[in-house]
Structures are given as structure tokens and as C-alpha cells.
Give the backbone structure.
Amino acid sequence: MNIQEIIAKKRDKQELTKEEIEYFVQEYVQENVTDYQAAALIMAIYLNGMTKEETTNLTLSMANSGEVLDLSSIGKTVVDKHSTGGVGDKITIILMPIIASLGIPVAKMSGRGLGFTGGTIDKLESIPGYNTQMEMSKFIENVKKIGISIIGQTANLAPADKKLYALRDSISCVDNQALIASSVMSKKIAAGAEKIVLDVTVGSGAFMQTKEEAIEISKMMKNIGNLANRETVCVLTNMNEPVGKAVGNTLEIKEAIECLKGNIPEDIKQIILELGSQIIKLAGEGDNLEENKNKILENIKNKKAYRKFLELVENQNGDISYIENPEKFQKAKHIIPVYAEKTGYIEKLDARKIGVISVHLGAGRIKKEDGIEHSVGILLEKKIGGKVQKGEILAYIHANDEEKGKTAIEDIKTAYKIVENQVKEEKYILGII
Ligand code: URA
């Protein structure tokens, strides 16, 4: 077997065998297959697709390309959560402390932002001292000790996905169903949880642009989960506009703190209730989803969830005085309002555009190696369905570079579409698969 033959087969629209896929994944991780050969194969997959069987084989090969965690010593069912990506998505930071406060263990590995989407680890690192890197034994010990740990993916967890994800990003091959499904599921299988809840985002700020695409990929991921003995539930959520009001690392942490204190925007509330009630059910802690939602609301109200977040931050070396007093977080140098140019209703607020603007302000990285500025981003004052008067503030830009901030003003205006007639509010939950 050699890589040239495998590339040629896929180029000519033929199906790859399990052995050929395994060969490619192993040899790529060991650097016997070059990046340009891998790029050629990925582009051929992107253009010609993969069958369900090929997708499953790619997923399992990637999952087994590094260590596969054993979480059995935690002694309780661990339910993992993953989002297919979006803008302003701080759901993990709010939801997982709530889950842990209900006595359900949380052992969560999250990613960094790439492209126009943000990443939980970048957001958590805006808390001074918060440690996102640690040995596996310490990670599991943390979960046993306080019921929760959220860290970055270790270097040896699904390393094939790590390499392929960066490669796909650099050759414009991210938005492909088979490649996304195998990327997400390989990491989740390797991370060791018995059950998985996936937030499958749909809309302008997501990789799946339509509900139909989201349903298709959800079925694919559920099927892979079943084959790997991991019960998987997918919740389809709206990503036409950013989630909540804040986009950018520190800004999102501050919003997450507010949510844990009970001040939750409606979209975030619906998403955490839906995902959370499914997690509680899969953990075997309650089959009635409505009752599960009440448990979540109760632990926000009685501050148990907020206190669990403090415990998480403290246990991972973060400075909790910032959580207790968010005014301490460093602010961007320039806070610039963006004014509406006409009166009407917000019909569109393009999540992808807002994500791209936020990256240009410095909140995200264009290349994997880029650094980020935690304090910059965008605070949205108006969202879809909202009424606005001419001259009212649509959003605030938080910028360190004044020029970049000024450029962002016009860009943000183009992300909004204001119409005369009243528009319906967005539906946030689009289905459960
Ligand atoms: N999230 C992932 O983990 N992988 C993808 O390919 C896309 C989103």
C-alpha cells in the first residue's frame, strides 16, 4: 500500500478500504505522509465525499491515533458535551458548572478558536492564572476532588484530528460533513466519556448553513457514536446571530459570570436548558426533561452553579477575585459605540461577519500560531427581532488599536439589517436528533 495509490483512488471517486484509511492516518501522524500528500487526499475527500463506512473508519482511526482516556475510575457516568462551533458561544463555561453542581461529574476537554469561531480554552485563559494544560492523572484527580475540570485537549488526544483540522483550515476544507463528523466524534471517543451531547449549530455563524445539513450530520455522528458504544444526542441550535450579547474572550467570561448569577439572555437560557436537560438524562439522573430543566434553574437561583464555577477556577489556579469582581478584568483601550442609521426592527445580525470582525480586532487567530488579545471584541446591544431608533446604539466595539476599532464601525453596520416591519424573534432550538 502507498499514499499515491490512496490519493489516486479518492481522486477517481472510488471508496477507500478500512486498511487504506488506517494506513493514511497512522503514516500521517508519524510524518511519513507529507502535508502536501495529506492536503491532496483531503481535497479529494472534500470534492468527492465519503460513504458512511469510510467516515466511520476515518473517525475510529483518528480516535485511536493517540491515547484513549479511561474515565472509569471517576465511578459515575460521564457525559461529554461538544459544539460544532460558533460565535459568542460560551455555553460550556455556563452549563458545565451547573451540571457539576447537580452532582454529575464533568471531565471536559475543549478547544481553541480557529477561523471566525471562538474557543472555550481561549476564553478561560482570559481569567488570570487559570491553568488549561495538565497531566491526565491530575485532570481525573480534579474531577474526583471537586466534580469538574475543564482543560485544553492534550497533545496526544486524537493527534491525527489535530493535524488534519489545522491542515483543513489552511486549505479551505473545514466545511465538509464527513470531515466535521469524523473530527468531532474522534475527539469525543478518545476523551473517554460514555455518553455525548452535541450542540450542532446551524446558520450564518456555523459550518452547517441549513437545518437539513445539520440533521444529516447529526444522524452521521449519532450513528458513529452508536458503533463506538457511545450514546449520542444532538441538539440543533440557531447560529444565525451570535449567542448572547458578548463576542470576545474576556467579554464572554464576564457574560458567563452574569448568567451564572441568574442574568441570562433568552437564547443562552434556552440552549443551556435544552442541552443540560439532555445531559442530566443521559447521566441517569432524571428521565423527565422538564424536571431536569427546573433542576438547572434551581441551581442557578440558589447560586450553587456560580459557587461551582468559583471552585473550578480556584482549583485550576485561576484568580477568583476577578470572578467575584469582574470590573478587575483588563478592559480594551477604546470602547466605541456603533449607532443605528435608521429606525426599524433588526431582521439580520450576521454571526459570521461579527466573528470575522472580532478576529480582526484581535480576539481570534487567523493562523494557528497567532496570539490573541483577551480584552477585545464586540458587545451587541441589539439582536434579531429587536426594535431600534435611529441614533440608538447597536453595539460597542472593544478595541486596543484605534484604527482597527474605527474600521470595525462600518463592518458592524453591514452585519445588521434593519427593516421597517416588525420581525419574528429567532427560534433558538431547532430540533433534537
Ligand atoms: N469542530 C470540530 O471539532 N471539528 C470540525 O471539523 C469542526 C468543528
Summary: The chain has three domains: 3-49, 72-324, 332-419. The pocket of uracil is lined by residues 84-85, 165, 174, 179-180, 183-184, 207 (CB under 6 Å). The mean pLDDT is 96. Residues 72-324 form a domain with the Pyrimidine Nucleoside Phosphorylase; Chain A, domain 2 fold (CATH 3.40.1030.10).
